[in-house]
């Protein structure tokens, strides 16, 4: 692999060398993905816990760029239990959305590829490893078992088609129940009413630009729920909405999750939304999980310095401060990640162990896990001797 100069400059020869190597890897992965008539035994798997809707294990998702390989998701492992909401939180570029796009197999290919790990999807009577499922078979799973509410509804909805036609396309594509035209039309109206749209028949005849942001987001939710999926991925569904509409959308998601007994993977920057919505929380930084646990554990006892920094940077009602706290420094270059803890250069709670390799996962409780040297046995003993608390 070509070496970068200290100033980040790449010569034309080095760039060509990287492009050749990238093509060799992506061509091999694409050939594997596009195979036809693949026997089911190749991607059949077993759930570690049948009570989980999906399990990510050691997932590595990379983007093969002309400047080098970007490890967007670098060994992520967590579960989404059936009927529960798992909040995935972290700053922009930490790998939240890429993790969800890996589950949907909607990565920008051929550059974006799952290169290692498993994504076990529970279908009820059996389980598939989504990382190995061929493209043709994935078309059946996407929408029926896993669906996604995208971040920006105006770009996700097609501006030249009516709302009803766009929902109809989902139902026709996944029409496993052999519905008639009249039944499909009724289902469209039922879906729009289910997400709280009063004039359902009128809205079905409208174009996306005729609706407000909140209404468009409700339409996106209706499309995602059209086939009653087992898992719903909500990728920052309230980012562009005002606070009142945001609260309504969150309430709606909570009610619908219970009504169709689905699980939600909720991706957001907003810790307030996570506190309100999530049963479990996964904190990501630079493509890795730094901390995970129940919502109560993460909010009441944040352990990783990054999680503590996120908590400190959110405004508190009734507390007046001159300046909000912000985590110092910047995220390391994703093409050239350090061998040590990715957060070390920004951390204000460093200890002696931080000079070592990337820390392993340490269990603080059966559900609360953190990757930080402050919680190794030696550091805990030392802290206790000095009367400090971790």
Structural key phrases:
390 residues; alpha/beta; eight-stranded mixed β-sheet; 13 helices; 21% strand; globular
What this model shows, in words?
With 390 residues, the protein is α/β, with parallel strands linked by helices. It has a domain of 78 residues. The strands form two sheets. Strands 7-8-9-4-10-11-13-12 form an eight-stranded mixed beta sheet, with helices on both faces. Strands 1-6-5-2-3 form a five-stranded antiparallel beta sheet. Helix 9 links the parallel strand 8 and strand 9. Helix 5 crosses helix 6 and helix 6 packs across helix 8. The model has no long low-confidence stretch (mean pLDDT 89).
What layout of secondary structure does this protein have?
Elements: H1 12-33, E1 44-45, E2 52-65, E3 68-81, E4 85-89, H2 96-104, E5 112-122, E6 127-129, H3 135-141, E7 146-149, H4 153-156, H5 163-173, H6 181-194, H7 200-204, H8 213-224, E8 231-235, H9 243-260, E9 263-268, H10 271-277, E10 280-285, E11 288-294, H11 295-300, H12 305-312, E12 362-363, E13 369-370, H13 377-385
Parallel strand pairs: 4-9, 4-10, 7-8, 8-9
Antiparallel strand pairs: 1-6, 2-3, 2-5, 5-6, 10-11, 11-13, 12-13
Helix pairs in contact: 5-6, 6-8, 8-9
């Amino acid at each position: 692999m070509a070496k970068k100069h200290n100033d980040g400059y790449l010569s034309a020869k080095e760039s060509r060398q990287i492009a050749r190597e990238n093509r060799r890897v992506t061509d091999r992965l694409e050939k594997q993905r596009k195979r036809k008539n693949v026997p089911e035994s190749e991607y059949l798997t077993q759930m570690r816990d049948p009570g989980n809707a999906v399990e990510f294990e050691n997932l590595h998702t990379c983007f093969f760029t002309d400047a080098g390989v970007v490890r967007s998701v670098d060994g992520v492992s967590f579960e989404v239990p059936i009927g529960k909401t798992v909040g995935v939180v972290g700053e922009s570029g930490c790998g939240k959305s890429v993790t969800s796009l890996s589950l949907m197999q909607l990565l920008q290919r051929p550059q974006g590829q799952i290169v290692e790990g498993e994504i076990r999807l529970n279908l009820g009577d059996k389980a598939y490893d989504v990382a190995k499922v061929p493209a043709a078979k994935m078309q059946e799973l996407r929408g029926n078992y896993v669906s996604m509410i995208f971040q920006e509804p105006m770009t996700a909805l097609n501006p030249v088609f009516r709302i009803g036609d766009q929902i109809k396309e989902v139902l026709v594509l996944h029409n496993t129940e052999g519905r008639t035209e009249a039944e499909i039309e009724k289902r469209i109206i039922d879906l729009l009413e289910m997400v709280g749209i009063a004039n359902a028949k009128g809205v079905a005849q409208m174009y996306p630009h005729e609706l407000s942001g909140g209404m468009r987001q409700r339409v996106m939710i209706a499309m995602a729920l059209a086939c009653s999926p087992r898992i719903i991925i909500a990728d920052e569904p309230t980012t562009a909405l005002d606070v009142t509409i945001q609260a309504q959308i969150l309430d709606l998601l909570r009610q619908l999750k219970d009504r169709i007994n689905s699980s939600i993977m909720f991706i957001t920057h907003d810790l307030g939304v996570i506190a309100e919505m999530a049963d479990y929380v996964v904190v990501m930084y630079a493509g890795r999980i730094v901390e995970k646990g129940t919502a109560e554990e993460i909010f009441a006892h944040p352990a990783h310095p990054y999680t503590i920094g996120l908590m400190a940077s959110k405004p508190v009602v009734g507390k007046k401060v001159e300046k909000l706290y912000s985590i110092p420094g910047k995220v390391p270059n994703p093409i050239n990640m350090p061998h040590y803890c990715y957060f070390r250069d920004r951390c204000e709670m460093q200890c002696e162990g931080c000079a070592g390799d990337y820390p392993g996962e340490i269990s603080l409780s059966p559900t609360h896990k953190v990757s930080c040297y402050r919680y190794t046995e030696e550091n805990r003993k030392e802290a206790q001797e000095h009367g400090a608390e971790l």
